[in-house]
Amino acid sequence: MTEKELEVLKIIEEDARIDFNTLAKMINLNENEVEEILRKLEKNKIILNYSAVIDWSKIQQAEPVTAMIDVKVAPKRGVGFDEVAERIYRFPEVKALYLMSGAYDLQVVIEGKTMHEIARFVSEKLSSIDSVLSTTTHFQLKKYKHDGIVFEEGEEDRRIVVTP
Question: I want to staple 41 with a disulfide (CB 3.0 to 4.6 A). Which of 17, 23, 47, 111 is the partner?
Fold first, then answer.
């Protein structure tokens, strides 16, 4: 990975909609070179997707219910957690899946239209997988910050600046 490729990644991670001309000027390349770098990064599956962060709480009829489910799993010999993780991430409700350290092995993030829909997912789909030993479900009540973006700008910070 070249230094220029790393620069491109850092910049588009902050703003995926930046135009090639601006990006090229920022890293001192021409537009064709930037386009070539992006194509290479996409081909090598380093850039997987470009997405927008949306504040769904401002659109009441479309706001999904989000849950984080901690899952304790019995790993299988030779494949560890990978086989059960693959079964779980194939469900369309699953938005994210992480291997974790601590009391639980996996954390599953899912979205549904209602809490009942999430409860059905846990009882009918997730808990019925042989390797799943137990689950703990946490519902997201309010989103303050996601991917570095603050959702609700509150009052101006009134803390006193302390300098030595």
Answer: 47
Task: Write down the pTM of the prediction.
Answer: 0.70
Domains recognised in the chain with CATH numbers: 3-43 (1.10.10), 65-141 (3.30.70.920)
Rounded-to-integer distance, Cα 39 and Cα 33, Å: 10
Report d(CA 160, CA 78) in Å as an integer. Answer: 56
Task: State the pLDDT at residue 77.
Answer: 87
CB neighbour list of residue 36: distance below 8 Å, 6 or more residues apart: none
Q: pLDDT tens digit string along 1-48?
A: 899 999 999 888 888 889 889 999 999 999 999 999 999 999 999 998
AA letter at 161: V
